[in-house]
Specification:
It is a single chain. The chain contains 14 helices and twelve strands. It is of the alpha/beta class. The radius of gyration is 22 Å and the shape is elongated. The protein has a six-stranded parallel sheet with strand order 9-8-7-10-11-12, with helices on both faces.
Length: 353
């Protein structure tokens, strides 16, 4: 949702007319109320939702941009009954396999005019799923660099959680979902705590929270691992971190890693998906194979123990992060729109929608 909001904001700043179709009771619809965009209430449920979407697409839009797999499928079907058909662009932000079923093969091979992959890793997954390479453009996610000016001193977190001075803090910010692999992190923490004192914060919410909390108790690390749930001060947690860790075994790119690099938190992450495109091993962080808690624990210990490594990674990552501004994402996306509209001329009188 954050990426969609940034894209809409940037498109408005670039002079484009933007409309959002989304559930009226959802957070995205509400947050879009702060932007100069038209909001269209659309639930996407059942045949009624499909008919409603077909009516929306019958309006003179040049480009319809889907940002989730379900939206991709709905638009792919709904636009078949619309003449003239609007162009369909799909953003793919996860590196899950695609095209493994008859429906998936149709959706990915015939259900869109262009795909925006947030990393080369996602690009490769789309190609393996049957999407023609010429229909894919790598458009990395961006972040709002201005937001970091408002990040507070995290001293209040040290007080809130009774942190002991000198005890290192490890932070993970991610949804509590299977592909984020926090179980691997818990096993790594168990190995680490045998050699040192530490605190670990897992910031985020998700369906696996109760399962992960039980796992922490089973492994004997519940006293050093805190599940915070959703926090609107996630950036302050990252700023607090001595090391930021991402334990995923699937990851499209990892905007929380980008946040950590801006804030100067040394990164230890898995070599999967698009992560190696923003984390260079030994230069802007440390990379480890996914699903290997022993190697993850070793890398965390190395980062905590080696002050020169932390300083080097912090310096190079901060320099690299200057290129993360979301306007890069906006203009690369706009280039795709314009290229498509040049091949398929836009509807008369509506060249900016």
């Amino acid at each position: 949702q954050g990426q969609v909001l940034l894209l809409m904001r940037g498109m408005c700043e670039a002079g484009q007319q933007v409309a959002l179709a989304a559930p009226a009771d959802g957070a995205l619809y509400a947050r879009a109320g702060t932007l100069p965009v038209e909001r269209i209430a659309w639930s996407g449920r059942g045949m009624g939702g499909l008919r409603a979407l077909r009516g929306i697409l019958a309006r003179p839009f040049d480009v319809v941009h889907s940002h989730a797999s379900r939206a991709h499928g709905h638009v792919a079907v709904a636009r078949t009954g619309v003449r003239p058909q609007p162009l369909h662009v799909v953003s793919r932000r996860v590196d899950f396999s695609v095209g493994g079923t008859p429906w998936g093969r149709w959706k990915y091979r015939r259900g869109a005019d262009a795909y925006l992959a947030i990393s080369r890793g996602v690009y490769d997954v789309l190609v393996r799923g049957g999407v023609e390479p010429e229909h894919i453009t790598v458009v990395p996610s961006g972040i709002d660099l201005a937001k970091f000016a408002a990040v507070r001193d995290p001293a209040y977190l040290r007080s809130e959680f009774a942190l002991v001075p000198g005890v290192p803090v490890i932070v993970n910010v991610a949804a509590l979902a299977p592909h984020k692999a926090q179980t691997v992190l818990l096993h790594a923490v168990r190995a680490l705590r045998e050699r040192r004192a530490l605190r670990c914060f897992i910031v985020g919410e998700g369906a696996l929270r109760s399962t992960l909390e039980r796992e922490a108790h089973t492994l004997g690390v519940a006293d050093v691992v805190t599940f915070t749930g959703f926090r609107d001060d996630a950036l302050e947690f990252i700023r607090l971190a001595d090391v930021f860790v991402m334990s995923s075994h699937l990851e499209g790119l990892g905007t929380s890693i980008m946040d950590a690099q801006v804030l100067g938190a040394p990164v230890v992450a898995t070599r999967t998906g698009g992560i190696p495109e923003i984390v260079e091993d030994g230069v802007t962080g440390l990379l480890v194979p996914p699903r290997d808690p022993a190697v993850l624990a070793h890398a965390l210990a190395r980062m905590l123990d080696d002050g020169e490594l932390r300083a080097r990674c912090r310096e190079h990552a901060r320099a690299q992060s200057e290129g993360y501004d979301y306007h890069r994402t906006v203009y690369k996306t706009l280039d795709v729109y314009r290229r498509l509209c040049h091949v398929h001329p836009p509807l008369e009188g509506n060249s900016s929608r």
